[in-house]
Amino acid sequence: MAALSTSPMNNNNNLNLNTIDTNFEVDKLTYEIFSILENKFLFGYTDTEKAKNSLSIDVKQAKNAAGKVRILCIDGAGYTDGILAAKSLSHLESCLRRKSGNNNSHIADFFDAVAGSGVGGVLAALLFTRGKDGLPLFTADEALKFLINNRNKISRRSGILRRVFSPETKSEKLFRKTFGECTLKDTLKPILIPCYDLVTRAPFVFSRADALEIDGYDFKMRDVCAATSADPAAAIELKSIDGKTKILAVDGGVAMNNPTATAVTHVLNNKHEFPFCNGVSDLLVLSLGNGELDFNAVKSPSGFVRIAGEGASDMVDQAVSMAFGECRLNNYVRIQSNGAMAKVNKGKPAKTVSDLVAVSEEMLAQKNVESVLFKGRKVVENTNLDKLELFGGELIKEEERRKTSILPTVVLKNGSPSPRTSSPRTSSATTLSTSSSSS
């Protein structure tokens, strides 16, 4: 089995030749390094101290030239069953198309990594899985419509008897039709989707990086989506493509409703794909919530599990905000409902899909809430929509910067994984467990 690692795989954050896969194009980087050496040291530099200071400046400039890694994180269901996150992404994609002047832009074009839990994992899969034309399977608008049209299949909790009499649920049939034979290797960018494994009693994170490195960690996307959104009362058994890794999975929200901390940790320790990313100042993170459940309306055990997941989400938000420190205002944005659960129809809770869409729009129009270092939270002047608009501008700036940069911010693995060696892995979100079950 694979369980979430509690410590970094590799504490060495210095870039060396071993951290860049030999399959990657490094000619530009090599040329830049030797140009610096040639211009600054081989011609005209006799003052050692001056040369030392010059090298320090160049290293600093190179670090800044590497830019920021852009991460998208999506919570589990929440009150809106994923519709708030989907509406947020629909608005963001529209903003990106308007600002970039490209009406064919996709969310996946402007993010370097994505993490999603529960229905958030389904959204991540829809937006970042490669279609037959090489583009993402879904635009943000199409993903929103997918959640609206299939809400009852994805979010409805199926009892244990239904599982016994119907081995394949409606959601599994839906995912099979949507993703076909696509696997984790068929995603466009690094992706992290958690579930909870009942055998090891630990989180299991489906990871593109792991799938490319070890065949035993490659799973079909339809199984990944079924696992991360599985009812805690009706676990789903699934196997890796090679059949060597088995999981008894339930909803990722059980242990990781807000996957932001996992995504940040993964990127900071994945030196193969993010060679220049060494701290939170090198990140641009968008974290999407899905509204807050009404505690008084919860009447089932699975409902209380979701309430607990939301509490954990708030704790993750606080922790991540504190980790970002002073740079959180520009580098970290959290979109979530403001205070009490939104209501429609004169105070009555939303029940239908149209109600949830209206509630999501209402939540986006609310003032944004920021976590303040050691001071709890505060309501700011900008609305959630304003925050998305501003963040979209930052994504565009980073995209434009990369067009003229010689240093690679991201060096994605795209080929077949190289044979395993004795050197430690730096790209993994998961680690082999001694209690692993193999067939």
From TrEMBL:
Residues 416-439 have a biased composition (Low complexity). It comes from the Eukaryota. GO terms for molecular function: hydrolase activity. A motif (DGA/G) lies at residues 251-253. GO terms for biological process: lipid catabolic process. Its EC number is 3.1.1.-. Transmembrane segments: none annotated. Residues 73-264 form the PNPLA domain. The keyword tRNA-binding does not apply. Residues 408-439 are annotated as: Disordered. The keyword Hydrolase applies. Keywords: Hydrolase, Lipid degradation, Lipid metabolism. InterPro entries: Acyl_Trfase/lysoPLipase (IPR016035), PNPLA_dom (IPR002641). The nitrogen atoms of the two glycine residues in the GGXR motif define the oxyanion hole, and stabilize the oxyanion that forms during the nucleophilic attack by the catalytic serine during substrate cleavage. Belongs to the patatin family. Lipolytic acyl hydrolase (LAH). PANTHER family: OS03G0784100 PROTEIN, PATATIN-LIKE PROTEIN 6. This is Patatin. It comes from Medicago truncatula. The gene is 25486297.
